[in-house]
Amino acid sequence: MVGAGARVNTEIQAGPLYRVVGSLLSISCNTSGFSNVNSKKHFQIRMKDPSKPFHEINIMSSEDKGFSYARFIPRIQNSEMSIKHVDSNSIIFEIKYLKKEDEGVYECSVVNPEYNYNGVYSATTVVKVIDNSLSVTSSDAPTSPSYNEGEALSLTCQASTNTIQHVHLAFSWYIRKEGEQDAKPIISLDKDFTLVPGEGFEQRYRDKAIRLDKLDEATYRLNIAELEPLDQGQIYCQAQEWIQDPDRSWYKISQKDAEEIPLTVKNELHEGQELLLSCGIKAQNLAKRFFSVAWLWEGIELAKIGPTGILTVRQEYIDRERNGELKATRTGNNNYQLRVKPVKTTDKGSYSCRAWPEERGEDGNFNQGAAQDSQPLGLRRIIPSGLSVKMENMKQPVSPGEKLKLICEADGVKGQLSVSWKRKATPPTSSLFATIISLNENGVTEKAEAFTSREVTVTRPTTNRFVFELADVADSDSGIYECIVSETQPSGRTQSQMQNVNVTVKSIDSVVKVVLRNRDPLVTMGNDVQLMCKVSSPRVPMTLTWSQETEDTNLNTIVVLYSNGSISWSGDQYRYQVQVDNQGNSVMHYLKVLRASHREEGKYQCMVSIFLHNVYKKLPASNLVNVKVQNPENKLALSPSHTIAQRINTDIQIDCKVTSRTSEFSLYAVTWELQQDAGNKTILTSDRNGITTFGQQIEESHRKRISMRHTDGPTFELTIQQARISDKGIYMCKVVEYLQDPWGEWYSLSDKHLTTVVDVTELVKTIFTAYRNSTLQARNKNVVVRYDHSSPHQFDLTVLKSNLENSGIYFCEVEEWIHAPADGWRKHAVEKSGNLNVTVDAEGKLSIPLS
C-alpha cells in the first residue's frame, strides 16, 4: 500500500518517436501512487494535431467504447488500434499501420477511481511519422543462374535511405531452398555492426569460405569461395533501418528485400549422393490454375505430377519410388522438385522439366494446353564411389517377442562412416521410409522419437560392420528395413549407399495357442477342482484372465494375472488358488477351485491378452471346459419295516429310526404319509429346521391326536392318540438328509423311506377254541360246540342259559393245518368269518350256526 502522503504519477514512453508510414507504433504508459495498487486502472489516449495545438482528439479508452472520435472507430473495430493492459497499472497503446496523419502529440491519461486528486494523471509524448525511403538492390547478378560445383560466387547489396535522423543499417543475405517456406540466413551484419553466420554456414565462415565485405557505408558484397550443391535456391539481400529512441533502445523502423536471384549449382555427383532438380512456373493467377509438370531424362519422362497432384512414375523407376530413392513433390504454387538419392552411375545425363496448363471442362475432365520445356541441365558424370553395402541373410519369419537382428557391412571404405536404419511398413501406409536409429562418425546414437520407448540399438563391432537390434518385435514391426551407410571422405565430400531387406514378423495369433484342460471333470462336493491352461507362445508380456460362463452365456471374471506380476481378483479370493509354471516355450497356468460346490459348476475359460509397444491385443479365448460337482454318496439308512397291531382307543407310536447317516452334522426333513384303500394322504411334514406342518387332508379334529417327536439316534416318533379303526393302514416315513456345502448353504440328498403296517381292531372275547387234534376247550361251561363229522367243515356253537350279557357281535376264526412228513404239522392258512350281531333276552336259548 502507498502511504497517505504519496502522489499519483503517470508516465509515458519518452519521445520524439520516429516511425515509418505503414509500420507499427507502440507506446507504453503506466501510473503509480494510487492507494489501491492492485485495482485495474483505466486509461484514455488523446492526440493533439501539431497544426491545431489546442485541439485534442479522443482516440481510444480502455473503458468507454463511446470515447473515440468517429474517424478512429473503423480502425479500432478492425483491431488496427488497441489498448492492452500489461498489468493493473500499465498499458501499451498500438497502431498496427501508421498513417501520415497519425503524427502528433499523444497524451495518456489515467482515470481517477478515487474521490480526490493528488498528483499527475496524464503524460504526453511526440510521434513523428516519416516516409519509408529505404531501398535495396543487388548487383553483380550472374548472367546465367547456373554454376558448377566449386565455382566462386560474388553478389553485391546496396542500400539507400533519405532518413535525416541518425540510423543504423543492417544487412543480411538469405537463401530460400526449394520446398522450404522460410528462407535461411547465409550471413548477417546486425545493427551493432557484428557479423553472424547463418545456421549450417558456421564452418565455412570460420574457414573464410563465406565472407561479407564492406565496400562503403551502404554497400556490402557476399563472397562464396566454392559453391556446394546445398547452395542451390533463391538468394536475396535484405536491408534494415534502425533508429535509437530517447530511452536508448533501438527500434527497427523499416525493412526491404532485394529481388531474389535464382541459383542452380551443377555438379559432378558421386555415387550415393543426392540429385536435386527444381522446376519453377511463371504465369498469371497461378493459385487459380492447374498445371502438370514432368521431369525428363534424356528426353524420357521419369515422373509426372498431374493437375490434381497425383504422381505417376515410369515403370523402370517404380521400385526406386517405393523405396524412397525417387521423390517428386510440389513445394508451392509454382515450385516443383525432383529428388534422387542415392544417385547411381546410370543416372548421369541431361535432365529437364516440362510444364503445361490444364483446363478443366464442364464435364470435369482436363484439357491439356501447350507444353514448355526448361533448359536442360547436364549431369556430366557420376563418379563411382567404390562404397558398397550388403545385408547378411537373416532368419525369416521372426516370431513376436523375439529380437530382430540385422547386419549391414560396407566395402570400399575410404573415409569416416555413419549409418542410419529406416523402415517402411508393409502394407505401406506411406511411400517414405521412417528413420529408426542412427549412429554418427563419433559413435553417438540417436533414436527417432517414435522409438524412444523401444529397446533398439545399433553397434559397430568392426570398422565396416553395423549391427541393428530391435527387441520384443510385434507383427506391426513387419516391413522393409533399410541400412544407409554414409561416408565422409577426407576432402569433406559425402556419399551414401543403401541396402534393404523385407522382414516379416508372424502375427501373434498364429503363434499363441491356448488350451484348457480339467484334471477331473466330475468332482464330489467339497473337493478341489484343478484347471490347467497351457499357453504356447514366444516370450512376450501377456495378461491371462480366468472366467466362468454364467447361465446366460456371459463371462464372469474370476481373476486377472498381469504381465508385471500383479493380480486382480473379481471372484472370492479365498475360494481359489492360482499358480504359474514356466515351461520353456509354454506357460502352464493353474486355477484351483477350493472345496467346490454346485455354485462352482459350469464352464470355465482362460483368455490371453498381449500388450506390446502400447498396443493391447486380445487373442482368441481357450476352449470351454465343463466342471460338474456331484453330491457325496448317500449313506442314509432307516430301520426295517414292521407291523403294529393296536386296539381301538389306545395310543399308536411308530418309530422311524436313522441307522446310518452321511454326516454327523446332517439335518433331516421328515414326511409321514398314510396309504389306505381310499387313497394316500400326507399326515405331517417336518422340515430340516424342525418346523412341522400338517397335510391338507388332515382334519382339524384329528390334528390334536397326532404329533411327532425327534429323539436321539436320531429317531422320529409319530404318535396317534386314541386310535380309531380309520387310522389303520400303511404308514410311510420319508427322510431327506441335508448337508452344508462349503458356502454354508444346505443341499439335500435323495430321500429314504420305511413302511409300517398298522392294524387297529376292536376288543375281542374268545369263547371257545377247537384244536386240529379235535381237542375242544371252552372258556365258559355254558358254551357247547358241536362238530359234525358228516359235515367236517361245519361247527355249531350253543350258549346255554343265555342272558343279556351274551349279547354282542360274534365271529369265528378257522385255521387250516397241513401235515408234512418232514416238518410235521404246519399252519397253512387262517380265515375269519363275518360278524353276527346277536341280541339275547332274559329267557331265550339261542343256537348260532357257524360256517
What would your notes on this structure say?
The chain starts with 8 loop residues before the first strand and ends with a strand. Strands 11, 13, 14, 15, 18, 19 and 20 form a seven-stranded mixed beta sheet that branches. Strands 23, 24, 25, 28, 29, 30 and 31 form a seven-stranded antiparallel beta sheet that branches. It is elongated and about 180 Å long. The chain folds into seven domains: 8-130, Immunoglobulins (Immunoglobulin-like); 134-266, Immunoglobulin-like (Sandwich); 275-378, Immunoglobulins (Immunoglobulin-like), CATH 2.60.40; 388-503, Sandwich (Immunoglobulin-like), CATH 2.60.40.10; 508-630, Immunoglobulins (Immunoglobulin-like), CATH 2.60.40; 637-761, Sandwich (Immunoglobulin-like), CATH 2.60.40; 768-847, no CATH class. It is mainly beta. Strand 59 (706-711) and strand 60 form a beta hairpin.
List keywords for this structure.
single chain, 851 residues, mainly beta, Immunoglobulin-like, seven-stranded mixed beta sheet, seven-stranded antiparallel beta sheet, Ig-like_dom, membrane, Ig-like domain-containing protein, transmembrane, repeat
